Amino acid sequence: MEIINLRQRMISVAREIRREGNRTIGFVPTMGALHAGHLSLVHGARAKCDVVVVSVFVNPAQFGPREDFAAYPRDLTRDSALLAECNVDYVFAPAVEEIYPKNFSTYVTVEGLSEGLEGASRPGHFRGVTTVVALLLNIIRPDFAFFGQKDAQQAIVIKQMVRDLAFDSGVFVLPTARAESGLALSSRNDYLDEKERRAATVLYRSLSGAAAEYDKGERKVARLIEGVKSRVDAEPLARLDYVSINDAETLEQLDRIEDRPALISLAVFIGKTRLIDNIVLGKTEKQDAAGAIA
Ligand code: PAF
Question: In terms of CB atoms within 10 Å, which end of the chain has fewer, N or C?
Answer without folding.
Answer: C
